[in-house]
C-alpha cells in the first residue's frame, strides 16, 4: 500500500480508492491474529493521515460490513461522509436492463425488473451477462426466453401460494405499524429471499414506542395467522428482533417493570425459557403479539389490498403506500392506546 500512497501523493489531484475496508477489523477483538491485525490497522491509519494531509487527494473507501471496521478508521478527519448504497429499486433495475439490452426488440423489461427487485446491481448484471451468453450460443438476439432463463438463476420463481404469503406478511408489517404509529416505511418490497420493509428507527425509545415497535415486528406473523390460517418460518428474523427489543426494553433500558438493574446486552444469549427473566420477556412478546393480531383483524381488508399491490408491483414506495392506505379511509386510532404506568426514555443503539 505504501507504493500506492506514494503514487497518489505524487499524482495529486487524484482519487485514492480503498476497497474491502472491512478487512481492517476492530483491534480489540481477541483472536490468534490479533497482533497482526493491530499492526495492519495502525499502518493504515498512518497512510490515511498522510493522504488526508495531501491537498488534492480524495480518499474513497468501500465495504460490505461497516460494523467490522475499526472505529478509528472511520472517524471524522479520515472519512467524513458515509453513504449506503443498497440494491437498486425497480426503476433503477429497469434502467440497467434497458441500457444493457435492446429494449426495442420486444423484451419484457417490466416483468424482468419486477422479478429482479431486491437483487444487487451485481446480480442484475450477472443475469444480463447470462442472457447474452445464451443468445450467443444460439447465434440469435437476446429474447424473453433467454432473459427469463437467466433471471431464474439469480431469482428463482416461487409458487403463487408462497408469493402471496410473503406479500401478506410484509403488508401486515406496513399496515399494523401505520395504524399504531402513523408512520409509513420509505419502501417495502418482495425480494428473492422473501421481503423487506425499510423503516427508520427512532434514536429515543419510550415504553409506548418500544411496544409499538415490537407489535410491528410481530405483525407479519400475525397477518399470516389471521388471513392465511397459519404462521410460517418467514417470521424467524422478526422473532429475533422482537425478542432483542423486548429484552432491551425491560432489562437494558429499564422501561418496564420495577427493576432498574441493567443487564449486559449479551446477557440475552444466556436466557433460558422457564427462568423469571426470560418469562418476563416472553410475557411482553405475547402481549404485543396479541395486540398485533387484534390490529390485523380490524384491518384485514387494508392488508389484503396492500398485499395485492405488492404482489403485482413487487415494490411500493412511501408515496404509493400512503395513497393506497388513505383510500382505505382508516383511522389511526390505536396510536398510544397501550398506556404504561410510567414512561421513561432512553437512547436506542440496539
Automatic annotation (TrEMBL):
Xref: InterPro entries: ATPase_AAA_core, P-loop_NTPase, Peptidase_M41, Peptidase_M41-like
Residues in Peptidase M41 domain copies: 161-257
TM region(s), chain numbering: none
Pfam family, one: Peptidase_M41
Gene Ontology process terms (BP): proteolysis
Name by which UniProt lists this protein: Peptidase family M41
Entries under CDD domains matching the protein: RecA-like_protease
Organism: Puniceibacterium sediminis
ATPase AAA-type core domain boundaries: 3-85
GO molecular function, one term: ATP hydrolysis activity
